[in-house]
Amino acid sequence: MPKLVIASIGPASSVQDGGRPGSQRYGLTPSGAMDRLALAAANTLVGNAPFAAAIEVGPFGAAFIARGGSVRVALSGAQRSADIAKRPVAVDSSMTLADGETLTLGFARNGSFSYLAIEGGISGEPMFGSLSVNARAGLGSPYPRPLQAGDELQAAPASGAPERRIELPDVPDAPIRIVFGPQDDEFSDEAKALFLASDWKISATSDRMGYRLEGPVIRHLHGHNIVSDGTVNGSIQVPGNGQPIVLMPDRGTSGGYPKIATVITADFGRFAQISAGRSFRFKALSIAEAQAEAKKFADLVRTLPDRLRADGAEFNIEALADANVAGHAVSAVDAGTWHPYAWTESEQAP
Amino acid sequence: MVEINTLPRLLPSGDSAITVEYSRDIDDGANRSVLSLDRALARAPIAGVIEAVPTYRSLLVHYDPVQIDYDSLSQRLLALARSPAEASPSTRRWRIPVAYGGEHGADLEDVAKSLNTTPDDIVARHVAGNYRVAMIGFTPGWSYLSGLDKSLHMPRRQNPRLLTPAGTISIGGVQTGVQCLAGPSGWHLLGRTPVRTYQLHRDPTFLLEPGDYVTFSQIDARSFAEQDRAAEAGKIIAELVA
Question: In 3-state terms, what secondary structure has residue A103?
Fold first, then answer.
């Protein structure tokens, strides 16, 4: 059986799938991909179920070698340079590594996370129905921790299917949409207006538990301590310093800061991909509007196979030009500041 | 006191979850209502509901907005909340052994000093308590217990610790807690238990359920070491008592 060997990989890279909901009542966070659309796109390119497990590659570079046979993979998510044995390949395409060939990924230029799906999926023992890594709880397959150089993932022999690319809708440079609540009544109308009218940046001390935002101070009406209640992906909690933290898939299942708003499902992946230091705004939707967007998002995931195109990575000149336009620009996040868990976890602690 | 059938407030947690809030405060009556609604929902599942997460004061209901919308689910949840309270199922009572003080409970002496008493007296007050699992949250198996003696209520530490040991038994605010995994905490550390409230590949993986009762018993450091080895090997150390 062929395998994919991790030759090098940066921090914040791990196997992730659709996550493991169902045990949040016991404090077990669901984990799962930061950008589910990109995960689904990569999987669709190689014929896998949309939320099958794939390699979530963080903002840094990585290299993968096929051993023991050829391995077919697909890449989606953050914009970054990619090449196989020095031949450039494009994001949003499938590609086949011949035995011994190396796929090299550069730093993320736009976005933070890429998804490398392996044809046939990643083999491992599901834990609570998922291969997603949750290192704190000792969960994840085949490794219950982030990936490291030297790790090996078993792969099915490449099918030899023709390579594909996938045409995804353009990512809008638009505000991240939220629904106010559940504790927006802990904030004045002025504070909520300030929250919507301000430019926000994602702090470099962000991780898979939470993204810390930098911007104006959002003040509470009655102080920042509330009795803990449940959290969701995209909960925007406001701690004592007034700088919001958006909770991500490795969040604590409960938290004790007022949550002013929640990022809508359809925009969660786009939010997760915003690079540290880049500014953005929020926009409020009604629940009905947000639910209409959630349905559109589900339809988009379901119909991804209709977006497959015949020409694969190595033949798509336009995509190549697009993928390599900026060379190896370095992400705003750097290895010195990307601290998995340390900061955000202490913020959520009992 | 909150009546069992007091109607909750429904609050949106985005487009895929509803917070069913019974109280803003830590309130035993509200917590009983939360657990009652949680049981009612388990008994009469609603299509599209993915899971429910009980906390002190609210039930967070995660759902799939493609299958059910906010208004319909709100109506269904309110109808469940109006129905007669679900009697608590078999009330389980656990006895959890704890090694107090010293290397096992770094804050015991300080807590005693701040309350003008002795460490032994703090242990006696903590062991005398009859607690209930109000919620489990933050990290796997982190169990928040209600029923802490009023004389032991105290604010969180000024500076939360970034790392506290697995099995820590601590107090914070009006609560006491059983922590399973090592991790950060702002509470005061009284002791450690060899009991794993979460252990992979053990049946059951999660030992405590919200609503279970808990008492503590004091053990010495040597028993702690022995029981810790047994627990690591998968033995359930906590005792079910009548």
Answer: strand
Contacts of B69 in chain A (CB under 8 A): 288, 291
Same-domain check for residues A108 and A147: yes
On whether residue B65 sits in a domain, the answer given is yes
Query: What is the model's pLDDT at position A43?
Result: 98
A77, pLDDT greater than 70:
yes
Residues A2-38 as b/e (b if ≥16 CB within 10 A, e otherwise) read bbbbbebbbbbbbbbbbbbbebbbbbbbbbbbbbbbb
Number of domains forming the structure of chain A: 3
Identify whether residues B119 and B210 lie together within a single domain: yes
Hey, is the C-beta of A284 within 8 angstroms of any chain B C-beta?
no
CB count, 10 Å around CB of B80?
A: 20
- The Cα–Cα gap between A284 and A344 comes to 25
Same domain, A225 and A250: yes
Task: Return the pLDDT at A337.
Answer: 41
User: Per-residue pLDDT tens for A180-229?
Assistant: 999 999 999 999 999 999 999 999 888 999 999 999 999 999 888 888 89
> Same structural domain for residues B111 and B202?
yes
Residue tagged 């109280």 (tokens): B23
Q: Find which of A23, A183, A229, A295 to mutate to test the B interface (most B CBs within 10 Å of its CB).
A: A229
B131/A contact by beta carbon, under 8 A: no
Q: Give the closest-approach CA distance of A334 to chain B in angstroms.
A: 23
CATH code for the domain in which residue A189 is found: 2.40.100.10
What per-residue confidence (pLDDT) applies to A344? 62
Hey, what's the torsion of the CAs at B66, B68, B72, B76, to 10 degrees?
A: -160
Per-residue pLDDT of chain B (242 residues; tens, 9 = 90+): 444 457 899 999 999 999 999 999 888 899 999 999 999 999 999 999 999 999 999 999 999 999 999 999 999 999 999 987 767 666 899 999 999 999 999 999 999 999 999 999 999 999 999 999 999 999 999 999 999 999 999 988 888 898 999 999 999 999 999 999 999 999 999 999 999 999 998 999 999 999 999 999 999 999 999 999 999 999 999 999 97
Q: Residues of A numbered 105-134 whose beta carbons fall under 8 angstroms of chain B's beta carbons: which are they? A: 127
Residues on chain A touching B24 (C-beta within 8 angstroms): 226-227
Q: Which residues of B touch A133 (CB under 8 A)?
A: none
Contact B137 A230 (CB under 8 A): yes
d(C-alpha A82, C-alpha A62), whole Å: 10
CA distance A278 to chain B (A): 24
* CA-based nearest distance A99→chain B, Å: 37
Closest CA to A280 of A170, A209, A193, A195: A195
Residues A12 and A158 in one domain: yes
Contact B184 A226 (CB under 8 A): no
Chain A contact for B211 (CB, 8 A cutoff): no
Structural domain boundaries, residue B119:
93-240
Give dist(CA A64, CA A84) in Å, integer. Answer: 9
Structural domain boundaries, residue A337: 317-347
pTM of the model: 0.92
Helix (H) or strand (E) holding B223: helix B221-232
**Is A181 in Cβ contact with B13 (below 8 Å)?**
yes
- Judge whether B232 is closer than 8 Å to chain A, CB to CB: no
CA–chain centroid gap for A234, Å, is: 12
Tell whether A82 and A181 lie within a shared domain: no
Establish if A168 belongs to a structural domain: no
Q: Are residues B148 and B214 in the same domain?
A: yes
